[in-house]
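Our consortium's second objective concerns turning raw sequence data into structural hypotheses that experimental partners can test. To show how far this objective has progressed, the report includes one record in full. It was chosen at random from the queue rather than selected for favorable results. The single chain below, 734 residues long, was entered without modification.
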Amino acid sequence: MIKINKLLKKHKNDWNQVLKEARSLDELGSFRDAIVIYETFLARSPGNSAIQEMLATTLLKAGEFNKSLIAFNKALKLGANSPQVLLHKGIVEARLRLQDEALSSFNEALLLKSDYPLAHNNLGKLLGDLGRKDEALQSYAAAIKLDPSYLDAHFNRGATLFGMGCLDEALNAFRAAHSLNEKHGKSLFYESMTLHALGHMDDADLFSALENVLTIDPLQIDSLNELGNLYKKQNNLEQAFAAYERALQIDPNSSAALTNQGAVLNVLFRFSEALACFNRAIEIDDRLAEPYVNRTLALLGLFREEEALQSAEHAIQLSPGLSEAHANRAMVLTKLSRFEEAFSSLSIAIQLKPDLAEAFNIRSDVYFQCGEIDAALKDAERAITLNPHFAAAYNNKGIILMGALRLEEALLALDRAINLDPQMANAQLNRSLLALLTGDFDAGLKGYEWRWKSVLRRQYKELGRPLWLGEESLQGKKILITREQGLGDYIQHARYFPQLAMMGAEVFVQVPEPLLALSGPLSGSLHWISPDDDYLPLTDYYCPLMSLPLAFNQLGGKIPADIPYFKIPEDRQSFWNQRLGPKTKPRIGLVWSGSIAHRNDRQRSIPLELFQDLLDCPFEFHALQKEIRPSDSAWLDGALNLRSYKDDLGDFADTAALVSGMDLIISVDTAVAHLAGALGVPVWILITHSPDFRWMLDRDDTPWYPSARLFRQPSVGDWGSVLKQIKVALEAQF
């Protein structure tokens, strides 16, 4: 920091010389030193309007906008009511988002001096920010008429025309700016972008043009950002990230570069890092919608759906016409199962931008989740027509075709997605599910490992120990089995735990809390751990629960069917035997719905009222589910032949004891169906038209549970036919 006393001594207390040195410091960019001199002088002579104006202008250059505005207002009060002061005051007000005040300042400057090109140009920029594009163009025209060599006015006119889609006029404006300075990189950049938008350049031509701009102006960060976008479009994410990084080295406060870099990190599933980029971009300028749009996706990737929704809605507030913001809001609403609202947002997105492939792709997913296969497929194909290289749309098409059991077409769509993007984990995962569904266990189980990079990655944790997939001996070793996915998945795969112990391993298993009491009696060298425990034992290996079939498949083993592999605690069994009382008729346990949070719940769960005909059969019917939906409660209360135990069921040890007291379980595809199979109790499982991969195709049995019989929908949503088959089978069996 400059020392005023030394400076005064140097100039023999001549303030004119000191102020002259302040102006030199200002010109050299030493704003802070110049500000100290001006402030010291004004402390002695507060009425000097000229120095007050100099201070205000230097504060503007230093980016201290609030202090600058205060200084300009003081200068005006002191009589410095010049067009230049009003212009600079307006610039400060615009930077502080005091748009009405800035508009007034620019107009006052022009009242004092109508032939002031700088004021016309800055007024044009403000009018453009306010969305008053035609008036902005008039202001730029006025500036250019007064000064035909005014490069910034030509450029700003071109940028406004470009944003309005008036590409031919924009091109002429950029060329006019470029002709005034052949090394003006920004003009050359936009000239290239306009030619590309007009179809006069392809991506390769644009790439070369941008490289040329950077040769002329190596600090032209717009070109670096667009180079990154081109690399990203080619799926060359490493080069894209590097281009954005170069832009940030030039300007660490480039909101566009931060947003673009975050978008790459989103694609790489590095959502925490992406979120940091978007938050920094918003900190720099919270008026821009794009960081919020991309931030929505990062939050969604982190499973912070409510925050993602807030981010999408804030983007819409900032830019109501931004179709991508509406599409992203719909994506979040779909995750929240708020489908009607999602459809509404997508209608707005498509109305705003009829060629937005992403909106059609999202809508195809919403239709699919609502069971509207034809509409879903139509939208997926529309997305592909709009963007033939849209890997996510091919993946979505594959999912929909799997849902329609058009499996050969589904395979083609998924293969196309993978060809376009070999690292697309969701497509790789779906292809593995298709392989498992059709009985190709080798390919399916190996491909299923892609889940850790897919939508199922939520439960993945880096444990810092080797992964065991059947290749190493477990004799004398310790292994941790980590929990993943649902309760039914745990029940299905618990059969492998004793097998691991028989291989000589000491086995530590993360057990879902509702299954801890039931897991206790499992045999072998087994230890149970709650998934909520912060401490994990040190082990030689770990294996995720759903990777156990792969590990044993690689060992050449078949699916273990040593059933039952759960033992019900005696006190629970005794309690439920007494609760049920003497049996007078065959006992049928009934489960008609699962968790509403399950992605496929709308397809797999059945309204209780559809079981009316079945409940007229002369048997005892017992509701085995704890959670009763409001839509089923009234019907259940009025059902004379269906006993409910929702208030008595605690954990799955209770459910197991109740299940064991039944002659037969009839269940949709839920954890209770798995529990019945694991206990060896006869169970009839109601399967959707497009089944979960473990039930495979065209069979009424399953290698997972010898006591199970499968009843499949003949078409999507047709539970009526299934329940008729169930009734006939019941009457035949009992």
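The partners drew two points from this record. Residues 211 and 223 are 8 Å apart (CA to CA). Strands lie at 478-482, 506-510, 526-529, 541-544, 587-591, 620-623, 642-644, 664-668, 683-687, 708-712. Both points have been shared with the crystallography group to help prioritize constructs.
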